[in-house]
């Protein structure tokens, strides 16, 4: 009976191949609920972020530089849920990769590209909020629609260049390393974790941007406190609106949730080489899915903290209901 709750046995990913990877066969008692949980998570991510994109896109009054960045970040989460997570679900629960070597590289490159894009979007959002709170008189002249579009293009182009560049340039290194360890096999799809390059990637592409974001928001917090006191004493003397302050607070929550979800995964990438690559693969899988869950939270944060999002969502729902 106890065996039902653990891995039942071991097999091969491809029974007909001599160089097939070993497969851990989990009990249906484990696999079926997790398939259901992951499928529900993917559906929520896809429809939640699609709703954010549609809500902002359908109402011209919501077409602001900040909201353009929000829409673009929602697009990254939408792609994560629709393209990256379904194959990851199969890999995690079947412990094999059945989609070929090239798609393994393309899937991993897309995964890292979307993570990089989210980090860069959050960095640009923090810059947007800095000007809105710390230099409000210059905000509309400096953070224009053109500037916002440029930020979005830089985020995507830079992320794709380095995301796919790291993965595909690591092809020969990966083969060499697996041959040295005598674990080259069919049915595996290794990414950056468990290698020194993963630690470098984590520091340069995650922790460094997060340090910049936290530094900017620390400065914003100090200035925002002063503005709050001014608004409470005499609102007419303040050039920063309560709306801007609330938007900054909400976006700070978005950044905080992102860091809470992704930091444990990237910490493992840094620690693993130090402990001679002894961190279990299962732990990486768990932390990877915790990181993916971040894509669920953003639409919920907007719904809870943005009154304009709730109002426009109701209007959009009514429009769609009439069409049906």
Description:
By secondary structure, the chain is mainly alpha-helical. It contains 11 helices and 2 strands; from the N terminus they run ββααααααααααα. It has helices spanning 28-57, 65-94, 101-134, 136-142, 145-169, 171-181, 196-233, 242-274, 281-292, 294-305, 307-323, and strands at residues 7-12, 22-26. A two-stranded antiparallel ribbon has the order 1-2. The longest helix is centred in the middle third of the chain and has 38 residues, at 196-233. It starts with 6 loop residues before the first strand and ends with a helix. Mean pLDDT is 86; it is low at 1-6 and 171-183.
Main β-sheet, in a few words?
2 strands, antiparallel
State the distance separating the first and last CA atoms.
50 Å
Structural class, from secondary structure content?
A: mainly alpha
Give average pLDDT, whole number: 86
* Residues in helices, as a percent range: over 70%
**Fraction in beta strands:** under 5%
Task: Report the principal-axis shape.
Answer: globular
Treating each run of at least 4 consecutive H or I residues as one helix, how many helices?
A: 11
Number of strands: 2
Strand order of the biggest β-sheet: 1-2
What is the H-and-E element order? EEHHHHHHHHHHH
Q: Roughly how many Å is the radius of gyration?
A: 22 Å
